[in-house]
Specification:
Layout: E1 7-11, E2 15-23, E3 28-37, E4 43-44, E5 47-48, H1 51-65, E6 71-76, E7 82-89, H2 93-104, E8 115-121, E9 130-139, H3 140-151, E10 156-162, H4 163-171, E11 178-184, E12 189-195, E13 198-205, H5 209-220, H6 224-233, H7 242-268, E14 277-281, H8 290-298, E15 301-304, E16 311-312, H9 315-319, H10 322-336
Parallel strand pairs: 1-6, 3-16, 6-10, 11-14, 14-15
Antiparallel strand pairs: 1-2, 2-3, 4-5, 7-9, 8-9, 11-12, 12-13
Helix pairs in contact: 1-3, 4-10, 5-6, 5-7, 7-8
Bound molecules: adenosine-5'-triphosphate and magnesium ion.
Residues 12, 183, 185, 282, 331 line the site of magnesium ion.
Length: 340
């Protein structure tokens, strides 16, 4: 039935994005999509600073896009997000939820009473005493503020989902590779490593395209808006000026280093997984020359993710600019896949 699947809603630092699909027996048909820009500073790294501005942007997006439902599945992310592999007691689902804070409180950097906790099993435990999975912990306040801002716009939050898992649903390529999906946003870079769709590692880095533009502007002594334009137009290929190429390389260095250290950690950790492919998405990944540069720096094949690969009937949407929506739209697409 049209509108029976909640809309995927991603509140990013630069824009709000929403995707509506119709779930058929075998696939997902794209019905509608839309985005609305947010004034700088409204949302910083997944955390709402100005809830009134978010509510107003949502109302405008819903008026302009004429979505078929007000039910939404909301994406959440946070620089303090913790996703950690662990084994916990194998209890029935309702008891597991109640017992989770007690089972994990010693091992969390966040206070359990101020955290939202979830557990994503990575195995079918059967009668085993324990089950291995990913523990997810997120500061509760930030999520509550987000949900309230959305509900004030007259929308109904039917689910809240980790942006990184949405990314995995939209953008993962299922094969024998160990793939790292890297979503480079304005303030946040989400890294999700998976093997054939099973998440192995999730990390949220507090850096992205804004920091890169700021760094270029400082280095070349130009306003951030000018640095942003230079970055988007020429990127790491440079504009023919040697200083600008050096500034671009320096600006992406912190991100490249953090990716490298995440992959090194993963390769040396308990699971010893070597990332063999990086799939880029997010607006920040559009920087010209970035894929080649990361490939050279990290020694791993780098390509662009196709976050619309699980959607059908995208031809009409293409005429309305869907192709330019997709790079930043991965989270909103993934939020509407697999929910009901
Ligand atoms: N053509 C381009 N070249 C380089 N960078 C670009 C280009 N287009 C957009 N960007 C960068 O993409 C970033 C925004 O990406 P995106 O829209 O994915 O972020 P967001 O989801 O709103 O933010 P976040 O995920 O951090 O909350 C900005 O920093 C912008 O500079
Ligand atoms: Mg984003």
């Amino acid at each position: 039935m049209a509108g029976s699947t909640p809309i995927g809603l991603d509140i990013g630092s630069s824009s709000i994005r929403a995707v509506e699909v119709r779930r058929t027996k075998d696939d997902y048909q794209l019905i509608n999509f839309g985005q609305f820009p947010l004034p700088p500073g409204t949302v910083a790294a997944g955390v709402i600073q100005d809830p009134v501005a978010v509510t107003s942007a949502l109302k405008q997006l819903w008026t302009a896009s004429r979505f078929g439902t007000k039910r939404v599945n909301l994406g959440v992310t946070n620089p303090q997000l913790v996703v950690r592999e662990m084994s916990i007691a194998n209890l029935p689902p309702n008891q597991m939820r109640q017992a989770l804070p007690f089972q994990v409180k010693e091992q969390l950097p966040l206070a359990v009473d101020r955290s939202l906790l979830d557990f994503f099993p990575l195995e079918e435990p059967g009668d085993n005493p324990t089950v291995r999975g990913l523990l997810i912990a997120m500061p509760k306040d930030a999520v509550v503020t987000l949900v309230q801002a959305v509900e004030k716009a007259g929308l109904w939050v039917t689910g809240v989902d980790l942006a990184s898992f949405a990314l995995l649903r939209a953008a993962s390529r299922l094969d024998s590779q160990v793939e790292a999906i890297v979503d480079i946003g304005a303030n946040i870079t989400s890294v999700v490593v998976h093997a054939d769709g099973e998440p192995i590692f999730v990390r949220t880095l507090p850096r992205g395209g804004s920091e890169i533009s700021d760094s270029i502007g400082t280095r070349l002594g130009m306003p951030t808006a000018e640095a942003e334009a230079l970055k988007c137009r020429f990127g790491l290929h440079g504009d023919g000026n040697r200083d600008s190429v050096a500034a671009m390389i320096d600006a992406v260095r912190p991100l490249a280093s953090e990716l490298r250290s995440s992959f090194t950690y993963l390769a040396s950790g308990e699971r010893q997984k070597q990332v063999t492919r990086i799939a880029l998405c997010g607006g920040g990944a559009l920087m010209p020359g970035l894929a080649e540069h990361l490939q050279e720096q990290l020694g791993v094949a780098v390509m662009y993710a196709d976050s619309a690969t699980r959607l059908r009937d995208i031809r009409n949407a293409r005429e309305r600019g869907f192709d330019s929506f997709v790079p930043s739209g991965a989270v909103s697409i993934g939020l509407t896949l697999g929910v009901s």
